[in-house]
Structures are given as structure tokens and as C-alpha cells.
Amino acid sequence: MKTITRSLAAGIVGVALASTPALATHKTHPVTGEVLSDNQTYTYVSIDESSSLDPGLIEDVSGAAVARDLFEGLLTQNADGTLAPGVATRYTTNADKTVYTFHLRRNARWSNGDPVTAHDFEFAWKRAVSPELASPYSWYMEIMSIKNGAAVINGEKDKDELGAKALDDYTFQVTLEASLPYFPSMVVHTTTMPVPTKIVNAFGDEWTKPGNMVSNGAYVLSEHVLNERQSRVRNDLYWNNDATILDKVTTVIIQDENAAFNRYIAGEVDQTAPPSGQFNALKKSMPNDVHTNPRLCTYYYNFNMDAAPFDDKRVRQALSYTIPRDIIIDNILQGGQIPAYTFTPGATANFTVPEVAFGMMTQAERDAAAVKLLAEAGYSKSNPLKATILYNTSEGHKNIAIATSQMWKQKLGVEITLENQEWKTFLATKGAGDFEIARAGWCGDYNEASTFLDLVNSESGYNDSNYNNPVVDKLLAEAKTMSDPNGNYTQIEKIIADDMPIAPIYHYTGNMLLKPYVKGYPFNNVEGNWYSRNMYITAH
Amino acid sequence: MLNFIIRRLGLAIPSLLILIIISFVLMHSAPGGPFTSEKPLPPIVLANIEAKYGLDKPLPIQIANYVWGIVTDFDFGPSFRYKDRTVNDIIEVGFPVTIKYGFWSFLFAVTVGVFLGVVAALRHNTWADYTAVGIAIGGSVLPNFVMAPLLVLLFTVKLGWLPGGGWEGGQIQFLILPVIALSTSYLAGIARITRSSMLEVLHSNFIRTAKAKGLPSSYIIWRHALKPAMLPMLSYLGPAFVGMVTGSMIIDQYFSTGGIGLHFVNGALNRDYSTIMGITILVGTLTIVFNMLVDIMYAWIDPKIRY
Fold first, then answer.
1. Average pLDDT over chain A, rounded to whole?
2. What sign does the CA torsion over B287, B291, B293, B294 have?
3. What is the pLDDT of residue A25?
4. Residue of B36, B39, B153 lying closest to A424 (CB–CB)
5. Contacts of residue A265 in chain B, CB cutoff 8 Å?
6. What is the pTM of this model?
7. Which of B114, B75, B107 is nearest to B91 (CA)?
8. What domains can you pick out in chain A, each with its CATH number?
9. Distance (Å) of CA A373 to CA A405, A412, A494
10. B38: which chain A residues are within 8 Å (Cβ-Cβ)?
């Protein structure tokens, strides 16, 4: 009924417009009052096709961006990244914060008209941890500390024993193994989004194809041609559809950054990344299009601490001190990146970057200290340190490795061999611990320092340096249940700035070109999460 | 002739089987696997995934299961990368795209290439010859990864006539630039081969005889010269046709056409074993079939050839 009256109204407006073309009444934005374009479509570039659009299986950034439009979890985010009610309007917890009860809104619907119930969440969560789905992101449910999560993933317990339960159609209860202060911010993630039980059971693996897929977010999938495009259109049954302005959003897959740039210039797409090396020039030639904002990502080198010479702290310190961070950022990357002396980026929520000793020195002081440290470790120009930097094949990584090794040679007399490997080969080599120094990058999975610092836990599967410090492990374990763990994080950063299992190099920035008529893009969201429902196109 | 076709088809099956086994072994011997990622999976999750896709079984069993699936159900298996797609899905969507731009590229390359070659041969050592040779050389030294950006720069960015990429079901405006970019180097090859073989034919005795009989020159070219001049080109056209209809990584990557050329390369980089296998078998089969067709056409064009 609602849709009928709406199209009727649109028809009347259309007639009125046709008869009085001079008085064309353009819509305006309800809050800002800006005149909106008649064509509310947004087309953006993704460099890669996502491996899946199934919330339970999504593992890449591009797929997650689509899923945030198609699905809505218990909670969601405002444009600036702060938490906002999603399908759940509110939640309550018990005294020790181990049981969370989410109260779901009654007007949330799937795009086929079925109500979104707590049972859909229970089904989705159990599905995400089940060995049958074998989701590459099931570990996310494990770090959420959901009761029995790890045991279900390991196949030790049945998925029905997971601590996620629908008490009734509109009440969803989660039981945790231990209190986790930042738990609410974790239920924004795609892995925790609901899936339509009926549809998944009916279509199996093929439920995410256009035509089959039913979703509960602001948009529904209308088209998906692998490696070409994915389109989504407004979901008329979304509970807050009246606030949505963009009618259609399209992802086009363009693997070549220069091809994408040409299509941006030609006006075929509204957003893309600046081609490498052109950021500074574009900042001058198209200042209204270029945007840069900090991201929750760190670029660093791993030292293999299992074998000499990198089992010696002084060697690791000397090398980390002399990495030419400013030269790398100003002359190679040229994208406003931030030099890194800690692992966790300063943009992380509730994290204050501690003043670690080597970050406070000038480069000259660091160089002098490094020479001394390396001499103490027994290396000199006559007995030079020799090592290999391993990185995955890419111009960018190569340039950084060249700059670094040149500086090491010049300042310390270190002789470096560069070794590049194709991506999967690189991962296999690094995973096997068959390296001396290896390039790495890490992006936070959620906006909290533990998403970085968990990597230096001796138990972590991502601890490529094989760093093992019981003090750090203890501080990390304590931090899990503290209401304000910042003090522990600061202490850990200070310890690793001294032990130097890794050499942080820079914190990433997100650089992009966005047409000036696209408004509402959340540049302040450090996780890079954006929602089409908050965006709009102004008349241009 | 029938015997020949049956014999060739009989040979095709063991050839494909060998192709499958070699590809399978090579693929699995490359370091890393489909589920190796920057954020390594916990061993138990990895084990679950490998069990799901049958990767936990010994290699010979995997190969046998794979071949059995193809023979019984024509099932090339699920993609290891795109979780909601089978390899059949990927080929079903991607192959029509590459066939479309590949076929038009082929037609364009052959028509223009033969025309240039014939003109150059007939007007040997004149400006027409030099122009045609110039175009042919230009085409061969401009590979498609240079052509593609140049075309987009001119027709999309400067003139605004054509879209710089996309497919949208293969409408004509999305087809033109990929076709030009893909066909130029083939066109150049065809023009050069046509020119030299045409020159050779035009100097042969039977053409001199035809001229002496006073036949009109257009009749001589169409009726007598063109057919034998095409002979050397045929062996070039078979693989060229397969090369074009199985797509080009460069075209798919630069123009985002969604064809199987890109899937093939991405499949290798992602270690998407089943996708690599599916496309390898497709390309292998096409190569075998078209080489056979070329052999049959040889016999048709040259009466001296007998099988």
C-alpha cells in the first residue's frame, strides 16, 4: 500500500513538473538544506572483487563495504564511527558484563517482508562459527569471547552450545566467557550481521546471488557480474528508508589504478584512489577532489627473533633506529602518512600514543645510538652485519626496502640483500619463519588497541617475529577485562619500543579522489567504514 | 577425412588428461594455497576449510575426483576464491564476454589485416604498400597494454566519445575500444603474412599463365591468388582465434570487461585451483578443436594435401 501511494504521488509531482518546467522544485537535504541532484546514484571503484557477499564469509574490505549497505547488525555506526542503534534499539548487561541482552526493533524487515527476528541472529552466529561453513572469519567470533565459541570452531562442541540465544522473537542474548569492555563495538562487524534463515536454507551457497538474496539493510542487491560490477538499490522495506537519499550504489571493479583514474576524469565513476606517485600533483590540480585521512593500519618490518643475528636486541634496535621514516614518507609515499614509532596508530579510539624513547630522539641522535648499539653487538665495517629483507613483489615495497637498506649501509655498514616473492609464495615463506627481515602491514579489525597489540602476544598466530615476553602477555591478558586498559597498552608499547620485535615504519593514510558533489562521506571514520545511507549527491 | 577426424578426437582425450595432470601437479607445487592469507587462519579453521573442499585428500585422489566430476556431471567444482560461485558459473558468465569481444576482434583483424596485406602486395613498392607496412609495423610494436591506455586517453578523456571501460551486457559503445586494443597486434601479423605470401603467389607461374590468358586482374586475385596466399595464414589464424576468444588479461584488467582472461590470471595469483583448472581445460579443448579445424581447412584449400 505504501509503495502504491508513493508512486501515485510521484506521478502527480511528475505531471506538475511537466506543466511548470520553469519552477522545477528540486529536493533539498533535510538537515543541511543543500539542493540535491535528481540523479541519486553513486559509483565507486573497488580494486578487487570481493570473495563473498555472505556476511558470515566476508573477509575483505570491499565485501564488507557492500555488506554494510545490504545488512544491518545489532548495532551500527554513525558517520563519525560512534555506535548507533541498528536492529537492536537498546541493550542491557548483567553486573559483571558477561551477559548482553539486545532488544530488537519490531519494525525491522527483510526485503521480502519477513520480520527480522532474534532467531535470524542466532542462526547467523551459529552458522558463522560452524565447521560446516568453515568461515575464514570464524576467529572473529572467538575473539569476541562468546561462550563456547572457540570450542565450536575447533569441533569440540556442537554449534547449538554457542552462547548466543534468541529468548523470544525480539530478544537476543549473548553470554561471554569473560567480560569484554569493548564488546558492543564488535557487534557492528559484518561477521555478526544477521542472515535470512529461510532463504539461506532454501538456496544454500547460492543465496547471495541477485534474485535469491534477501537483506535487511538500507539497500538490496540488484546486479552482480563477477569482476565487473555489483549494484544495489534502495530497500523500500528498510525501517529507516525515509532517511536514505542515495537510490542506487554501484561498485565497479577496476584493477588498474590508471584506468580507474581515467574513468574518474571522464566522469564515469565518482570515487577512486589517486594513482601512486601522483598524490602531491593531484592535491594541487584538483584540491576539492583529493582527500586524506588517517587509517587504522601500520606498515612495519618483522625481525625473525628465532635466529642470530636478530635474537640480539641491540641489532634490532640499531636497525629500527636508522630506518629513514621521514624520507620514506616525504619522498617515496608522498601521501601524508604518519611516521610510526609505536605499533598502534594514534588514530585508534581511547589510545594515547606514549612517548617512547626512540621516537623522542632526532634522527641524528638515533643514528648515533644505532652505531654504538651495533658495535656493542660485535658488528663493524670490517665485520659487517649481513641480512635479507623479504617483501612481496610491488614497486612500493621495493622502494621502501631500497631506501632502508641504503640508509643501513651508509650509517651502519650493514649489507642487505633484497628478496621479493609473489604474494602467496611470500605468505608461505613468512609463515614458515623462513626469513630474516620481512615486510608486513596490519589493519585493525575493530577500533581498539588490542587489535594491534594482540600480535605481540606469544600465543598469537600472527606473531611472525616469534616474540615471547611473559610480561607483555600478562599485561594483554589483564587489559581484556579492564574498563580502562589504556595504561596497559601504553606500557606494552614502551616495552616493545625497547625490545623491538618489529620495527614500525609508518601509519597508513586513506587517500582518495571523491567528486565534490558527493557528500556525507565519513572521512573521520578511522576504520574506513562508510554507509551509503548517510551519503547524498548535491546538484551539480 | 572422417578417419582423420576420429583419430584426432581420439588423441584429444589423452592430451587433455595429460594437460589436467600436469596443471594439477604444477599448481599444487606452487608455494601457498587458496586459503593462505595475510591474516593466517587458525589451523583448525584451515583444516575445516580444506576438508570442505577435499584438499585434505592425497593429490592423486583429488585429481581422480576432479576428473570424475567433469565426466559424470560436467562439474568443474566450486571456486575456492568466490565462495558462492562454481567454476561453471564463472565460465558461464565470463566466457560469453570474451567470445563477444574476441570474435569481433578476430573479424576486424582478419578483414582489415587481409585487406592491408593484399593492397600492399598489389601495389608493391608504392605509397599504398608503405602505408600498409607502416600500419602493420606500428601495430606490432604497440602492444595492447600500451594501446588500451592510449585509446582511453583519446576517445574517453579527450574526446568523450566512448566509455573508458565496463561491459554492461556488451553494448556496442563498450565493445569498440577493447576490440581495437585487442586486434591491432593480430591485425598487424595478418597483414604482414598476407602481404608476403601474396607477393610470392603473384610471382608464381600459374598467375603468369592466367595473366597471359588475358583474364581480368580482379578475377585473377579473387579466383586464383587469394586462396593459395591464405595457406600460410591459416596456421596463424587457428591459435590467434583461440587466443582472442579465450580473452586477454590485459583487456579484462584495463577495461573491466569481466571476461575469463582476468579470472585465469587472478585464479593463478589466488591459487584458486578449480578456476585455473576449468579455464585451462576450456582453453586446451578450444586449442585442440581449432587446430583440427585448421588442418581440415588446409585440405580444402590445398588439393595437394591428403589425410
1. 90
2. positive
3. 57
4. B36
5. 157
6. 0.85
7. B75
8. 3-23+56-203 (3.90.76.10), 294-509 (3.10.105.10)
9. 18, 10, 18
10. 427, 441
